[in-house]
Design goal:
Chain B: One of its GO terms (molecular function) is oxidoreductase activity, acting on NAD(P)H. The complex is a heterodimer. Chain A is an alpha+beta fold. In chain A, 24% of the residues lie in helices and 19% in strands. Chain A has 2 helices and 4 strands, in the order E-H-E-E-H-E. In chain A, a hairpin with a 5-residue loop joins strand 2 and strand 3. Classes of the chains: A alpha+beta, B alpha/beta.
Protein backbone atom coordinates (compact mmCIF):
# COMPACT_ATOMS: atom_id res chain seq x y z
CA UNK A 1 0.00 0.00 0.00
CA UNK A 2 1.19 3.49 -0.83
CA UNK A 3 -0.08 6.51 1.10
CA UNK A 4 -0.43 9.85 -0.64
CA UNK A 5 -2.01 13.20 0.17
CA UNK A 6 -4.27 15.05 -2.24
CA UNK A 7 -2.88 18.48 -1.41
CA UNK A 8 -5.78 20.21 -3.14
CA UNK A 9 -8.19 18.56 -0.73
CA UNK A 10 -6.13 18.72 2.47
CA UNK A 11 -7.30 21.60 4.66
CA UNK A 12 -4.99 20.96 7.59
CA UNK A 13 -7.48 19.61 10.11
CA UNK A 14 -4.76 17.23 11.30
CA UNK A 15 -7.23 14.44 12.00
CA UNK A 16 -4.71 12.04 10.40
CA UNK A 17 -2.05 13.12 12.85
CA UNK A 18 -4.34 12.44 15.79
CA UNK A 19 -5.11 8.92 14.57
CA UNK A 20 -1.78 7.92 13.06
CA UNK A 21 0.96 10.26 14.25
CA UNK A 22 3.57 7.70 13.18
CA UNK A 23 2.39 7.82 9.56
CA UNK A 24 1.45 11.49 9.14
CA UNK A 25 2.72 14.87 10.18
CA UNK A 26 1.77 18.42 9.35
CA UNK A 27 4.15 20.61 7.37
CA UNK A 28 4.70 24.27 8.15
CA UNK A 29 2.01 25.23 5.63
CA UNK A 30 -0.47 23.05 7.57
CA UNK A 31 -0.70 20.52 4.76
CA UNK A 32 -0.36 16.89 5.79
CA UNK A 33 2.80 15.04 4.91
CA UNK A 34 3.42 11.31 4.81
CA UNK A 35 6.17 9.99 7.07
CA UNK A 36 5.81 6.34 6.08
CA UNK A 37 4.93 6.05 2.43
CA UNK A 38 4.58 2.25 2.42
CA UNK A 39 3.19 1.32 5.83
CA UNK A 40 2.76 -2.34 6.75
CA UNK A 41 0.92 -4.23 9.45
CA UNK A 42 -0.32 -2.05 12.27
CA UNK A 43 0.83 1.14 10.56
CA UNK A 44 -1.16 0.20 7.45
CA UNK A 45 -4.26 -0.26 9.63
CA UNK A 46 -3.65 3.15 11.19
CA UNK A 47 -3.26 4.73 7.76
CA UNK A 48 -6.65 3.28 6.76
CA UNK A 49 -8.21 4.63 9.96
CA UNK A 50 -6.71 8.03 9.24
CA UNK A 51 -8.08 7.99 5.69
CA UNK A 52 -11.55 7.27 7.04
CA UNK A 53 -11.19 9.98 9.69
CA UNK A 54 -10.12 12.73 7.28
CA UNK A 55 -12.88 15.34 7.04
CA UNK A 56 -11.94 16.23 3.47
CA UNK A 57 -11.07 12.73 2.18
CA UNK A 58 -7.61 13.97 1.26
CA UNK A 59 -5.75 10.75 2.04
CA UNK A 60 -5.44 8.52 -0.99
CA UNK A 61 -4.44 4.90 -0.45
CA UNK A 62 -3.11 3.07 -3.46
CA UNK A 63 -2.54 -0.65 -3.55
CA UNK A 64 0.61 -2.17 -5.00
CA UNK A 65 -0.82 -2.01 -8.50
CA UNK A 66 -1.51 1.71 -7.95
CA UNK A 67 -5.27 1.40 -7.98
CA UNK A 68 -7.41 3.26 -5.46
CA UNK A 69 -7.90 1.08 -2.39
CA UNK A 70 -10.63 2.09 0.01
CA UNK A 71 -10.27 5.62 1.23
CA UNK A 72 -14.07 5.81 1.63
CA UNK B 1 -28.17 -12.38 11.78
CA UNK B 2 -27.28 -9.91 9.07
CA UNK B 3 -30.33 -8.00 7.81
CA UNK B 4 -31.26 -8.26 4.12
CA UNK B 5 -31.91 -4.55 3.90
CA UNK B 6 -30.71 -1.57 5.92
CA UNK B 7 -32.36 1.85 5.82
CA UNK B 8 -30.55 4.96 6.98
CA UNK B 9 -32.81 7.91 7.71
CA UNK B 10 -30.90 11.16 7.27
CA UNK B 11 -28.57 11.99 4.37
CA UNK B 12 -26.14 13.67 6.74
CA UNK B 13 -22.42 13.18 7.18
CA UNK B 14 -23.27 10.46 9.70
CA UNK B 15 -25.82 8.81 7.42
CA UNK B 16 -23.49 8.73 4.44
CA UNK B 17 -20.69 7.38 6.62
CA UNK B 18 -22.91 4.48 7.75
CA UNK B 19 -23.72 3.58 4.16
CA UNK B 20 -20.09 3.75 3.07
CA UNK B 21 -18.87 1.72 6.00
CA UNK B 22 -21.47 -1.01 5.39
CA UNK B 23 -20.15 -1.40 1.86
CA UNK B 24 -16.53 -1.13 2.95
CA UNK B 25 -17.14 -4.02 5.35
CA UNK B 26 -18.51 -6.09 2.46
CA UNK B 27 -22.25 -5.92 3.20
CA UNK B 28 -24.11 -7.04 0.06
CA UNK B 29 -27.74 -6.41 1.04
CA UNK B 30 -29.79 -3.37 0.05
CA UNK B 31 -28.78 0.00 1.50
CA UNK B 32 -31.22 2.90 1.27
CA UNK B 33 -30.37 6.42 2.36
CA UNK B 34 -33.41 8.64 2.98
CA UNK B 35 -33.08 12.44 3.14
CA UNK B 36 -35.69 15.13 3.69
CA UNK B 37 -33.85 17.70 1.54
CA UNK B 38 -33.84 17.42 -2.27
CA UNK B 39 -30.07 18.04 -2.41
CA UNK B 40 -27.39 15.41 -2.77
CA UNK B 41 -25.73 14.89 0.64
CA UNK B 42 -23.55 17.89 1.41
CA UNK B 43 -21.12 19.03 4.06
CA UNK B 44 -22.41 21.55 6.58
CA UNK B 45 -19.25 23.24 7.93
CA UNK B 46 -18.77 25.38 4.77
CA UNK B 47 -22.28 26.85 5.11
CA UNK B 48 -21.13 29.47 7.61
CA UNK B 49 -17.79 30.08 5.90
CA UNK B 50 -16.83 29.71 2.24
CA UNK B 51 -20.39 29.23 0.99
CA UNK B 52 -21.42 32.45 2.71
CA UNK B 53 -18.53 34.49 1.38
CA UNK B 54 -19.01 33.09 -2.10
CA UNK B 55 -15.61 31.38 -2.16
CA UNK B 56 -17.40 28.11 -2.87
CA UNK B 57 -20.70 27.06 -4.40
CA UNK B 58 -23.35 24.43 -3.58
CA UNK B 59 -21.90 21.97 -6.08
CA UNK B 60 -18.49 22.18 -4.38
CA UNK B 61 -19.62 21.12 -0.91
CA UNK B 62 -21.01 17.68 -1.75
CA UNK B 63 -19.94 14.98 0.69
CA UNK B 64 -19.33 12.57 -2.20
CA UNK B 65 -19.21 12.75 -5.98
CA UNK B 66 -22.70 12.40 -7.51
CA UNK B 67 -21.88 8.97 -8.94
CA UNK B 68 -20.59 7.63 -5.63
CA UNK B 69 -23.92 6.20 -4.49
CA UNK B 70 -24.85 4.31 -7.64
CA UNK B 71 -21.30 2.94 -7.83
CA UNK B 72 -21.74 1.38 -4.40
CA UNK B 73 -25.34 0.27 -4.76
CA UNK B 74 -26.61 2.84 -2.26
CA UNK B 75 -30.19 3.86 -3.09
CA UNK B 76 -30.89 7.54 -2.48
CA UNK B 77 -34.40 8.66 -1.59
CA UNK B 78 -34.12 12.45 -1.44
CA UNK B 79 -36.67 15.15 -0.74
CA UNK B 80 -38.86 12.69 1.11
CA UNK B 81 -39.01 13.12 4.90
CA UNK B 82 -39.58 10.09 7.08
CA UNK B 83 -42.74 10.61 9.09
CA UNK B 84 -42.97 7.58 11.34
CA UNK B 85 -41.19 4.54 12.74
CA UNK B 86 -42.82 1.31 13.99
CA UNK B 87 -40.34 -1.37 14.88
CA UNK B 88 -37.98 -1.17 11.92
CA UNK B 89 -40.68 -0.03 9.49
CA UNK B 90 -40.11 3.50 8.20
CA UNK B 91 -43.08 5.50 6.88
CA UNK B 92 -42.24 8.18 4.30
CA UNK B 93 -44.15 11.35 3.54
CA UNK B 94 -45.11 10.08 0.08
CA UNK B 95 -46.97 7.12 1.59
CA UNK B 96 -44.30 4.49 1.07
CA UNK B 97 -43.33 2.22 3.94
CA UNK B 98 -39.85 0.73 3.96
CA UNK B 99 -39.48 -2.54 5.85
CA UNK B 100 -35.78 -3.24 6.40
CA UNK B 101 -34.17 -5.50 8.96
CA UNK B 102 -32.29 -2.61 10.54
CA UNK B 103 -32.75 1.16 10.70
CA UNK B 104 -30.16 3.80 11.47
CA UNK B 105 -31.59 7.13 12.62
CA UNK B 106 -29.37 10.00 11.43
CA UNK B 107 -31.87 12.83 11.15
CA UNK B 108 -29.61 15.37 12.80
CA UNK B 109 -30.72 18.51 14.54
CA UNK B 110 -32.35 21.79 13.60
CA UNK B 111 -31.49 25.29 14.69
CA UNK B 112 -33.31 26.53 17.76
CA UNK B 113 -35.49 29.41 16.54
CA UNK B 114 -35.69 32.80 18.20
CA UNK B 115 -39.20 33.53 17.02
CA UNK B 116 -41.48 32.82 14.09
CA UNK B 117 -39.05 32.52 11.16
CA UNK B 118 -39.29 35.22 8.49
CA UNK B 119 -36.96 36.34 5.70
CA UNK B 120 -35.21 38.76 8.05
CA UNK B 121 -35.13 36.49 11.14
CA UNK B 122 -33.20 33.44 10.12
CA UNK B 123 -31.22 30.45 11.29
CA UNK B 124 -28.40 28.60 9.56
CA UNK B 125 -28.47 24.84 9.41
CA UNK B 126 -29.15 23.70 5.86
CA UNK B 127 -27.99 24.58 2.37
CA UNK B 128 -31.16 26.55 1.62
CA UNK B 129 -30.57 28.58 4.80
CA UNK B 130 -27.02 29.29 3.67
CA UNK B 131 -28.05 30.41 0.20
CA UNK B 132 -30.78 32.63 1.63
CA UNK B 133 -28.33 34.23 4.06
CA UNK B 134 -25.79 34.73 1.29
CA UNK B 135 -28.34 36.57 -0.87
CA UNK B 136 -29.37 38.75 2.06
CA UNK B 137 -25.79 39.64 2.98
CA UNK B 138 -25.27 40.90 -0.56
CA UNK B 139 -27.66 43.75 0.27
CA UNK B 140 -25.23 45.01 2.95
CA UNK B 141 -27.71 44.80 5.81
CA UNK B 142 -27.10 45.69 9.41
CA UNK B 143 -26.66 42.12 10.65
CA UNK B 144 -27.46 41.24 14.25
CA UNK B 145 -26.32 37.82 15.42
CA UNK B 146 -27.93 36.38 18.53
CA UNK B 147 -25.53 33.85 20.04
CA UNK B 148 -21.75 33.99 20.22
CA UNK B 149 -21.19 30.26 19.70
CA UNK B 150 -19.48 28.71 16.73
CA UNK B 151 -22.23 29.51 14.20
CA UNK B 152 -22.49 33.09 15.40
CA UNK B 153 -18.73 33.62 15.46
CA UNK B 154 -18.19 32.10 12.03
CA UNK B 155 -21.02 34.06 10.42
CA UNK B 156 -19.72 37.24 12.05
CA UNK B 157 -16.30 36.63 10.53
CA UNK B 158 -17.72 35.79 7.11
CA UNK B 159 -20.03 38.81 7.15
CA UNK B 160 -17.20 41.16 8.11
CA UNK B 161 -15.16 39.73 5.24
CA UNK B 162 -18.03 40.90 3.02
CA UNK B 163 -17.99 44.33 4.63
CA UNK B 164 -21.31 43.84 6.44
CA UNK B 165 -22.03 45.78 9.63
CA UNK B 166 -22.21 43.17 12.45
CA UNK B 167 -23.44 43.19 16.02
CA UNK B 168 -22.85 39.99 17.98
CA UNK B 169 -24.99 39.45 21.07
CA UNK B 170 -24.11 36.76 23.59
CA UNK B 171 -26.06 35.70 26.67
CA UNK B 172 -23.02 34.69 28.71
CA UNK B 173 -20.50 37.19 30.10
CA UNK B 174 -17.88 35.73 27.74
CA UNK B 175 -18.61 33.29 24.88
CA UNK B 176 -16.83 29.92 25.14
CA UNK B 177 -15.70 30.58 28.72
CA UNK B 178 -17.83 27.67 29.97
CA UNK B 179 -16.19 25.37 27.42
CA UNK B 180 -12.59 26.56 27.11
CA UNK B 181 -11.99 28.69 30.20
CA UNK B 182 -11.89 32.46 30.56
CA UNK B 183 -8.34 33.08 29.31
CA UNK B 184 -8.79 31.14 26.08
CA UNK B 185 -12.27 32.59 25.60
CA UNK B 186 -10.88 36.11 25.90
CA UNK B 187 -8.26 35.28 23.29
CA UNK B 188 -10.99 34.02 20.95
CA UNK B 189 -13.09 37.16 21.38
CA UNK B 190 -10.33 39.59 20.46
CA UNK B 191 -10.45 39.08 16.66
CA UNK B 192 -14.15 40.03 16.63
CA UNK B 193 -13.39 43.42 18.12
CA UNK B 194 -10.30 43.84 15.94
CA UNK B 195 -12.48 43.20 12.89
CA UNK B 196 -14.97 45.85 13.92
CA UNK B 197 -17.76 43.63 15.23
CA UNK B 198 -19.84 45.25 17.96
CA UNK B 199 -19.90 42.63 20.74
CA UNK B 200 -22.52 42.78 23.46
CA UNK B 201 -22.07 40.15 26.18
CA UNK B 202 -24.10 39.16 29.20
CA UNK B 203 -27.17 39.97 27.13
CA UNK B 204 -29.64 37.16 26.46
CA UNK B 205 -32.01 38.25 23.69
CA UNK B 206 -35.52 38.63 25.07
CA UNK B 207 -37.43 38.90 21.81
CA UNK B 208 -37.15 40.17 18.25
CA UNK B 209 -39.87 42.37 16.77
CA UNK B 210 -40.39 43.18 13.12
CA UNK B 211 -41.32 46.85 12.89
CA UNK B 212 -41.52 49.02 9.77
CA UNK B 213 -39.44 46.66 7.66
CA UNK B 214 -36.59 46.20 10.12
CA UNK B 215 -35.84 44.05 13.14
CA UNK B 216 -35.65 45.22 16.75
CA UNK B 217 -33.73 43.00 19.14
CA UNK B 218 -34.70 43.52 22.77
CA UNK B 219 -32.19 42.98 25.57
CA UNK B 220 -32.96 42.49 29.30
CA UNK B 221 -31.74 45.94 30.36
CA UNK B 222 -34.16 47.62 27.99
CA UNK B 223 -31.66 48.22 25.22
CA UNK B 224 -32.94 47.71 21.69
CA UNK B 225 -30.57 46.80 18.86
CA UNK B 226 -31.81 47.68 15.37
CA UNK B 227 -30.95 45.52 12.40
CA UNK B 228 -32.08 44.61 8.90
CA UNK B 229 -31.33 40.93 9.34
CA UNK B 230 -31.17 38.82 12.50
CA UNK B 231 -29.47 35.44 12.67
CA UNK B 232 -30.19 33.20 15.64
CA UNK B 233 -27.27 30.97 16.56
CA UNK B 234 -28.53 29.81 19.92
CA UNK B 235 -28.15 26.07 19.74
CA UNK B 236 -30.01 23.19 18.21
CA UNK B 237 -32.81 20.75 18.82
CA UNK B 238 -32.61 17.07 17.80
CA UNK B 239 -34.97 16.04 14.99
CA UNK B 240 -36.98 13.46 16.87
CA UNK B 241 -40.54 14.63 16.13
CA UNK B 242 -41.07 11.93 13.51
CA UNK B 243 -40.34 9.26 16.13
CA UNK B 244 -43.50 9.88 18.18
CA UNK B 245 -45.10 6.52 18.85
CA UNK B 246 -41.96 4.56 17.92
CA UNK B 247 -41.43 3.34 21.46
CA UNK B 248 -37.92 4.78 21.49
CA UNK B 249 -36.66 6.58 24.58
CA UNK B 250 -36.28 10.25 23.69
CA UNK B 251 -34.48 12.76 25.90
CA UNK B 252 -32.16 15.36 24.45
CA UNK B 253 -31.98 13.15 21.38
CA UNK B 254 -32.58 9.45 20.80
CA UNK B 255 -31.23 7.66 23.85
CA UNK B 256 -28.83 4.86 22.94
CA UNK B 257 -26.50 2.53 24.78
CA UNK B 258 -22.75 3.05 24.53
CA UNK B 259 -22.72 1.42 21.07
CA UNK B 260 -25.58 3.31 19.42
CA UNK B 261 -28.35 0.73 19.92
CA UNK B 262 -31.76 1.98 20.99
CA UNK B 263 -34.25 0.02 23.10
CA UNK B 264 -36.00 -1.22 19.93
CA UNK B 265 -34.26 -4.23 18.31
CA UNK B 266 -32.69 -3.37 14.96
CA UNK B 267 -32.90 0.41 15.49
CA UNK B 268 -29.76 2.50 15.98
CA UNK B 269 -29.01 6.21 16.08
CA UNK B 270 -25.92 8.24 15.15
CA UNK B 271 -24.80 11.84 14.85
CA UNK B 272 -26.45 15.01 16.09
CA UNK B 273 -29.80 13.32 16.77
CA UNK B 274 -28.29 10.62 18.98
CA UNK B 275 -27.46 10.70 22.68
CA UNK B 276 -25.21 7.75 23.39
CA UNK B 277 -24.59 6.64 26.95
CA UNK B 278 -21.11 7.67 28.03
CA UNK B 279 -19.85 5.56 30.92
CA UNK B 280 -17.21 8.09 31.96
CA UNK B 281 -19.83 10.86 32.13
CA UNK B 282 -22.43 8.52 33.65
CA UNK B 283 -25.18 9.83 31.40
CA UNK B 284 -26.41 10.14 27.84
CA UNK B 285 -24.65 12.86 25.87
CA UNK B 286 -25.63 14.35 22.52
CA UNK B 287 -22.64 15.66 20.59
CA UNK B 288 -22.66 17.80 17.48
CA UNK B 289 -19.23 17.11 16.11
CA UNK B 290 -18.41 16.19 12.56
CA UNK B 291 -15.76 13.63 13.50
CA UNK B 292 -17.79 12.17 16.33
CA UNK B 293 -20.64 11.57 13.90
CA UNK B 294 -18.44 9.66 11.48
CA UNK B 295 -16.88 7.60 14.26
CA UNK B 296 -20.32 6.68 15.59
CA UNK B 297 -21.44 5.82 12.07
CA UNK B 298 -18.56 3.43 11.45
CA UNK B 299 -19.04 1.78 14.81
CA UNK B 300 -22.77 1.23 14.24
CA UNK B 301 -22.21 -0.14 10.75
CA UNK B 302 -19.85 -2.75 12.20
CA UNK B 303 -22.27 -3.58 14.96
CA UNK B 304 -25.22 -4.15 12.59
CA UNK B 305 -23.09 -6.64 10.66
CA UNK B 306 -22.15 -8.46 13.86
CA UNK B 307 -18.56 -7.28 13.73
CA UNK B 308 -16.63 -6.03 16.66
CA UNK B 309 -16.37 -2.25 16.15
CA UNK B 310 -12.68 -1.43 15.94
CA UNK B 311 -12.11 1.97 17.46
CA UNK B 312 -9.35 4.08 15.97
CA UNK B 313 -6.76 5.37 18.45
CA UNK B 314 -8.21 8.37 20.20
CA UNK B 315 -11.70 7.71 18.81
CA UNK B 316 -14.34 8.90 21.20
CA UNK B 317 -12.33 11.97 22.15
CA UNK B 318 -14.58 14.87 21.13
CA UNK B 319 -13.05 17.04 18.43
CA UNK B 320 -14.40 20.29 17.09
CA UNK B 321 -13.00 23.01 14.92
CA UNK B 322 -14.05 26.44 13.80
CA UNK B 323 -12.65 28.71 11.10
CA UNK B 324 -12.88 32.43 11.83
CA UNK B 325 -11.02 35.44 10.47
CA UNK B 326 -8.63 33.24 8.55
CA UNK B 327 -7.69 31.29 11.68
CA UNK B 328 -8.57 27.78 12.71
CA UNK B 329 -9.63 27.06 16.27
CA UNK B 330 -9.54 23.44 17.40
CA UNK B 331 -10.56 21.79 20.63
CA UNK B 332 -10.20 18.20 21.76
CA UNK B 333 -11.52 16.24 24.69
CA UNK B 334 -13.42 17.79 27.58
CA UNK B 335 -11.76 21.11 28.44
CA UNK B 336 -14.90 22.13 30.33
CA UNK B 337 -14.05 19.83 33.25
CA UNK B 338 -10.47 21.09 33.61
CA UNK B 339 -8.95 22.54 36.78
CA UNK B 340 -5.60 23.43 35.16
CA UNK B 341 -4.39 24.99 31.91
CA UNK B 342 -0.88 24.67 30.49
CA UNK B 343 0.18 26.80 27.52
CA UNK B 344 2.37 24.57 25.35
CA UNK B 345 2.74 26.69 22.25
CA UNK B 346 2.82 30.44 21.62
CA UNK B 347 0.90 32.61 24.07
CA UNK B 348 -2.72 33.56 24.61
CA UNK B 349 -1.84 37.09 23.51
CA UNK B 350 -0.54 35.77 20.19
CA UNK B 351 -2.42 34.74 17.07
CA UNK B 352 -1.18 31.18 17.40
CA UNK B 353 -1.33 29.18 20.61
CA UNK B 354 -1.99 25.72 21.99
CA UNK B 355 -3.06 24.85 25.52
CA UNK B 356 -3.56 21.59 27.39
CA UNK B 357 -6.28 21.09 29.96
CA UNK B 358 -5.79 18.93 33.04
CA UNK B 359 -8.03 17.70 35.79
CA UNK B 360 -6.61 16.22 38.99
CA UNK B 361 -3.25 15.96 37.27
CA UNK B 362 -4.51 14.10 34.20
CA UNK B 363 -4.81 15.35 30.63
CA UNK B 364 -8.50 15.87 29.67
CA UNK B 365 -8.33 18.21 26.69
CA UNK B 366 -6.43 20.48 24.36
CA UNK B 367 -7.26 23.57 22.36
CA UNK B 368 -5.52 26.04 20.14
CA UNK B 369 -5.64 28.55 17.35
CA UNK B 370 -3.57 28.03 14.22
CA UNK B 371 -1.63 25.29 15.97
CA UNK B 372 -3.25 22.20 14.49
CA UNK B 373 -0.37 19.81 14.96
CA UNK B 374 0.23 20.96 18.53
CA UNK B 375 -3.39 20.32 19.44
CA UNK B 376 -4.10 17.18 17.46
CA UNK B 377 -1.02 15.20 18.42
CA UNK B 378 -2.39 14.97 21.97
CA UNK B 379 -5.56 13.12 21.06
CA UNK B 380 -4.34 9.69 22.10
CA UNK B 381 -2.82 11.05 25.31
CA UNK B 382 -6.23 12.57 26.12
CA UNK B 383 -7.91 9.23 25.41
CA UNK B 384 -5.62 7.53 27.93
CA UNK B 385 -5.65 10.48 30.39
CA UNK B 386 -1.89 10.80 30.62
CA UNK B 387 -0.42 12.60 33.64
CA UNK B 388 0.10 16.38 33.44
CA UNK B 389 2.36 18.11 32.71
CA UNK B 390 3.19 16.16 29.58
CA UNK B 391 6.74 15.51 28.61
CA UNK B 392 7.43 17.22 25.29
CA UNK B 393 6.42 14.82 22.53
CA UNK B 394 8.99 13.89 19.93
CA UNK B 395 8.96 16.46 17.17
CA UNK B 396 6.74 18.86 19.15
Amino acid sequence: MRVTIDEDKCCGYAACLSVAGKVFDLAADNIATVLVEHPEGELADLAREAAAACPTAAIVLLDDRDRPDGGA
Amino acid sequence: MTPREIVIVGASVAGVAVADELRRLGYEGAVTLVGDEPHLPYDRPPLSKDLLTGRTGPDRILLREPGHYADRGIDLVLGVPAVGLRGTHVALSDGRVLAPGAVVIATGARARPLGEPRPTLVTLRGLDDGLHLRRRLADAPRLVIAGGGFIGAEVAASARALGVDVTLIEAAPLPFAHLLGGQVAAALLRPHRDAGVRVLTGAPVQRVDHVDGSERVHLPDGRVVHGDLVLAGIGSLPNTGWLDGSGLSIGDGVLCDATGATGVPGVYAVGDVAAWYEPEAGRHVRHEHWTGATEQARSVAARILGREPKAAPGAGVPYLWSDQYGSRIQALGRPEVADEIQVVRGSLEADSFAVLYGREGRLVGAAGRDAAAHVMRHRQAIATAEPMPLQPAAGA
